Amino acid sequence: MPKPLTDQEKRKQISVRGLAGVENVSDLKTNFNRHLHFTLVKDRNVATKRDYYFALANTVRDHLVGRWIRTQQHYYEKDPKRVYYLSLEFYMGRTLQNTMVNLALENACDEATYQLGLDMEELQDIEEDAGLGNGGSGQENPHLISPSPPLVLSACFLDSMASLGLAAYGYGIRYEFGIFNQKIVNGWQVEEADDWLRYGNPWEKARPEYMRPVHFYGRVEHTPEGVKWVDTQFFEGKELRLKQEYFVVAATLQDIVRRFKSSKFGSTEVVRVDLSTLPDKVAIQLNDTHPALAIPELMRILLDTEHQTWEKAWDIVTRTCAYTNHTVLPEALERWPIDLFQNLLPRHLEIIFEINRRHLERIANLYPGDHDRLRRMSLVEEGDQKKINMAHLCIVGSHAVNGVARIHSDIIKATLFKDFYEVDPHKFQNKTNGITPRRWLVMCNPGLAEVIAERIGEDYIRDLGQLKNLLEFVDDDSLIRDIAKVKQENKLKFSAYLEEHYKVKINPNSMFDVQVKRIHEYKRQLLNCLHIITLYNRIKKEPNKNWTPRTIMIGGKAAPGYHTAKLIIRLITAVGDIVNHDEVVGDRLKVIFLENYKVTLAEKIIPASDLSEQISTAGTEASGTGNMKFMLNGALTIGTMDGANVEMAEEAGEENLFIFGMRVDDVDAMDKSGYDAMEYYNRIPELKLAMDQIAGGYFSPDQHDLFKDIVNMLLHHDRFKVFADYEAYIKCQDKVSALYKNPKEWTKMVIHNIAGCGKFSSDRTISQYAREIWGMEPSLERIPAPDDPRQ
Ligand SMILES: *Cc1c(COP(=O)(O)O)cnc(C)c1O
């Protein structure tokens, strides 16, 4: 039998089009040794694995640097429109392998490290994930980080903007501590600081020469020469999150203005004297409301520094800025108390008041006497404590507002932003999210990428719509066999990983049923949990039946201050403890809580999954991107008609997903008629049994009332109507189990899903942002590689 290919060998057969570099192993070795010697100042007697990782990272980085400088020169010469993507979160994951894959260097590096007696995969494992999200602020506001997506999305978008030749810049915060590391201790989540910079970061370059001041506090002076914000202090104190938001905005806008003013104009190098043409040259995309202060900050610059009239300044701001909404959950919508603003950013508050005055004047003219409408649409919310509604600020200050999946964009027009849609319907758009096929297929699942390329060629990686060509082969036994084989290999690999790192043994022939995402009530890990308990009770009752074996894996972080989410984790681990140690059950059902879910773990588990759980209450998940990653990697989806699941069903055919439960209309109707959890509890015996077990301490023998808060919530104040979808979910899971017994039919369905993935490339998403919001034209043309022997 031929020796199976390694992951690197599989990737070797695929090169991302147009990026195939010269694979010069001997050059790589020379440069590796040069970095070990001159950059790390070590020789091979004293070098550690980490030194080798850094030497390799620096070697690969050199290849990026040449291209990066060439790209900047190209932009400087051509002066294209720039897009600035502002986000408080960038979940970048690791960079080394991604860079090697994108520059088609991986195979050469693998060979070079092999010749040096090193194992490249082992070196790659030393890299820390860059999890630049807000791990800490959940302490103050438990809902702040949780419902807004951990924006792996932003990282996908950067990849696509680069692939599509857009002059794009991501601006965010380089947090010293990323999103916390999750440890599971006695079944509970414990947060640990993510000291990701401890050993340094080879993927960054500090630019202290571009340092700019950022002002806070102080007071506003209206002088004959204009308005001045004076006596500002440097920050310290409590309002950390608002400071972070202003910090990123203030620094970014200074950089945008600097670049705008110093770039060429046509063929002549001129210093632009004013910002009147800013919207022709600059697009600013606000990723959620977190960078909303860009709107008053740009107004402040235009008014106080550039001395523009209000009308002119407002025209520039609104033509430059655009806003993406990511959630409809009310607790996730940012509202900042005016007192805090007044103290920290007094000039911005003044500007916001004036924006609001003019905005309300316009509304009052359109709807004379409609005072309730004015109240609803105001940027200032009245109440015990007056607050600024940041979403309203974003809508008023932008020329485009978009949701992130069709159903979500429709919902915001019909509910959350209805009043705004009525007055400015032209502003509202949809941009269905996507994922980068480079990271989420070629890099993480080279075996599958190769099987696809063998059938339809490799151009699909940059033009994911071509995946539909796979449909020609849907009845082809060899494709069915190859797809099933890759999945089985990925499952074996992940099983080995779990055994090595977590000391758990799982049955690689069982169905891998996976729900990985933030832990949140709306995502309904509890519904999954009730299914687990139901399966368990059924197996116990009829142990000799031909059950479809399942390994159910759940992973995700809970916001540190979100009590219910943390208790949900405890329930999952408790159920696992009972189920996994029950000898009657054996390996027909196993429940694993995957500790510390992050990008690197996603890259491992998703290619190994059979079933993807996307079971949020209809109308609550704006889009989801995890759903797309699973679909592209050959898992079938069990899900509600929510977020992007709706479009996934449309693309793959609804018969190729396991769709169940209430639709948005049903949920709305139930909100009107009233949701009565007790009715379901009393009527459905298996549900009652599961709930009685949780409530009675079956899963927590040492502390019977451990889960009382969850039980009480589910029975009496469940905003997400878990019980209303229980029966449909269980029935649908029965269908899943039945189909899994027929591997050929299962795999055919998988092929329909992969073939339907074309829409969910972030290349498509970004092309639409470029054309329909930013006024830019994407292109696959490459900037010529620099005159560097290494390229
Ligand atoms: C993709 C991804 C998410 C988003 O998952 P959803 O299911 O869309 O909520 C969250 N965390 C990580 C690490 C991811 O890779």
Please sum up the structure shown.
By secondary structure, the protein is an alpha/beta fold. The protein is 47% helix and 11% strand.
Describe what this molecule looks like in 3D:
The chain has 791 residues and is α/β, with parallel strands linked by helices. The protein has three domains: 112 residues, no CATH class; 324 residues, Rossmann fold, CATH 3.40.50; 324 residues, Glycogen Phosphorylase B (Rossmann fold). It is built from 32 helices and 21 strands. The strands form six sheets. Strands 4-1-9-10-14-15 form a six-stranded parallel β-sheet, with helices on both faces. Strands 18-17-16-19-20-21 form a six-stranded parallel β-sheet, with helices on both faces. The chain has a three-stranded antiparallel β-sheet with strand order 11-13-12. Helix 12 packs across helix 13 and helix 21 packs across helix 30. The chain is globular. The two termini are 38 Å apart. 48% of the residues are buried. About 3% of the residues have low confidence. The site of pyridoxal-5'-phosphate (PLP) has 13 residues, from helix 23 and helix 24.
